[in-house]
Amino acid sequence: MYSVNVPVPGEARALATELYPSLRAFEAIRENHSMVLKRLGDDGHISQLQHRFNRALEGTAPVEAQITGIDYFSDPPLGTAPVVYLAVDSPGLESIHRELLAEFPPVDGLEGPDYVPHITLARGGSVHDAKRLASRDLEPIAWTVDGLEFWNGTEKVPVSRISLSERRTD
């Protein structure tokens, strides 16, 4: 599955490292942190997908994002529950997500009106442990999203990057 991902700031990775002892109660801890903005599908023609991705984002300016706390999905549409994550507030990213829906159909239950910007930390385990983590206070982490990555989900690697600042329109 290919996707458009938001690069995660170093401060978020540092926070995940700091939270690691509390995450050990979960079945799976995410080692590499990323944020899916939009799933694009499994189309075998990667160059066509990249072209559509680039065209859909033409003229898109950088946006602001902020990690506001820890939350969890008690009943995620895929995989084991609960899913503990860093909550991301960004009207700009939500707007880009909606724009990409015009070019790439939504994945039911995950995208469109169900899309929740987040950075997964861990999954599986008890809801009690998830609630305990979600009750922690965090200092917000703000950053400017000035680029997005075209991501190969099978290989779990970025294939290319699109700079939003270069495509800015005034």
TrEMBL record:
Molecular functions (GO terms): ligase activity
- UniProt cross-references to InterPro entries, sorted A to Z: Cyclic_Pdiesterase (IPR009097)
| Pfam annotation, one family | 2_5_RNA_ligase2
- List keywords of the entry alphabetically: Ligase
The protein's name in its UniProt record: 2'-5' RNA ligase
Task: List the source organism.
Answer: Halostagnicola kamekurae
